[in-house]
Amino acid sequence: MTVTSTPSLPAPDRLGGNLLAAGSTLVWAAGFPAAEGLLATWDPVAAAAGRFAMGLLLLVPLWLLTEGVPKGFRWAPGLILGAVGFGGAAVTLIWALAVTDPVTVAVIASASPLCAAVVEWALERRRLSGSFLLGLGASVLGGVIATAEGGGSGGNLLFGAALTVASCLLYSWASHEAVRRLPGQSVIAQTTVTAMGGGLATGALFAAMALTGRASLPPDAFGARDLGLLAVYGMGAIAVTQILFIGAVRRIGVALSSFHFNIAPFYVMLILVALGGEWSWAQALGAAVVAVGVVVAQR
C-alpha cells in the first residue's frame, strides 16, 4: 500500500476533537456495567430497544428546545441510516455482552480504529500515512494489553468477538454517513434522527420476537433499578456519547476519533473498581499505550 501524509489539522480542531472523543468514550464505557446489570433479567433485544427509548427521552426534548420544530428535514436517509447502522450496532454489541462480559467486550472493541480506517478507506479511498499505521498498531496493542485479565473463553469469546467487530463496523459506517448524508444539520439533529431510526428498528425486532414468544420484558422492567440502568445505558451511552462522537468526527474524522475507544477497557475497569471490583495494572498499561498511539497517529 502506498502511504502518504494524513492531512494536517489546525491545533484547535485536534484538541477539541480529541476532547470530544475522550468524553464520548468515557460516557460510552459507563454503559457496559449498566448493560451487564440489565442482562441479568432483560432479553438483549429488549434492552437494546429500551436503550434507544430512554436515549430519545433526552434527545427529542433537547432538539426541540435548542432548534425548534424541524422543517424541511431529510427524514428518510436519517431514519434508514439509524435503523441499519446504529440499530444494528446496538443489537450486536449487547448480544456480545450477553455471551461474554463488559471488560472483554470493551477490550475486543479495540478493533474500532481498524474498522473505522476500513470505512474511510472504502468510502473515501483515503490513503493511510506511516504515522497513522504506527499509531494504529500501538492503539490495537494497547487494547490487547488491557485485555490480559479479561473474561470469556472458547466459543463464547470468539462469537462475542465477531459480534463486537460487526458492531464496530456498523457504528463507524453510520457515524461517517451521518456527517455525509445529513449535511448542514446540527450534531443534535443528526443524533436524534438516527437514534429514532435505531429505536424503530430495535423496537420492531423486539415486537416481532415478543409476538412469537421469543422475548419478553422482565417483571420489574419499570422499577427504579432497571430504569436507572436504562438511563445510564440509554441517555448516557447512546445520547450523550453519540452527540460527542459525531462532534469529534466532524473535527478529526471517524478513524482518529475511534482510537479513543481503545481506552474504554481502562474506563470500564475504573468504574468497576468504584463499584467494588479489582484494579488491573494491565488495563492501566494498555490505556497508556493507546494514548501514545492516538498522539502518534495524528502527527
| Cα separation of the termini | 19 Å
What string gives the helices and strands in order? HHHHHHHHHHHH
Shape: globular
E-strand count: 0
Q: Poorly predicted ranges (pLDDT <50, ≥5 residues)?
A: 1-6
Which structural category fits the helices and strands? mainly alpha
Mean of residue pLDDT values:
85
Share of residues in strands? under 5%
Q: Please count the helical segments.
A: 12
Helix content: over 70%
Number of domains: 1
Task: Specify the biggest β-sheet.
Answer: none
Radius of gyration (Å): 18 Å
Keywords: Membrane, Transmembrane, Transmembrane helix
Domain EamA: 17-145
InterPro entries: AA-Vitamin_Transporters (IPR050638), EamA_dom (IPR000620), EmrE-like (IPR037185)
Protein name: DMT family transporter
Features:
299 residues, mainly alpha, 12 helices, globular
Describe the secondary structure blueprint for this structure.
Layout lengths: L10 H28 L5 H24 L7 H25 L2 H7 L3 H13 L5 H17 L7 H28 L5 H25 L12 H29 L1 H6 L4 H11 L6 H17 L2
Helix pairs in contact: 1-9, 1-11, 2-3, 2-8, 2-9, 3-7, 3-8, 4-11, 5-7, 6-12, 7-9, 8-9, 11-12
Describe the structure.
With 299 residues, the chain is mainly α. It has one domain (11-297). Helices cover 77% and strands 0% of the residues. Helix 1 (11-38) packs across helix 11, helix 2 (44-67) packs antiparallel against helix 8 and helix 3 runs antiparallel to helix 7. The chain is globular and about 50 Å long. It comes from Rubellimicrobium roseum. Residues 17-145 form the EamA domain. The chain crosses the membrane at residues 45-66, 78-97, 103-123, 130-148, 154-174, 186-210, 230-249, 256-275, 281-297.
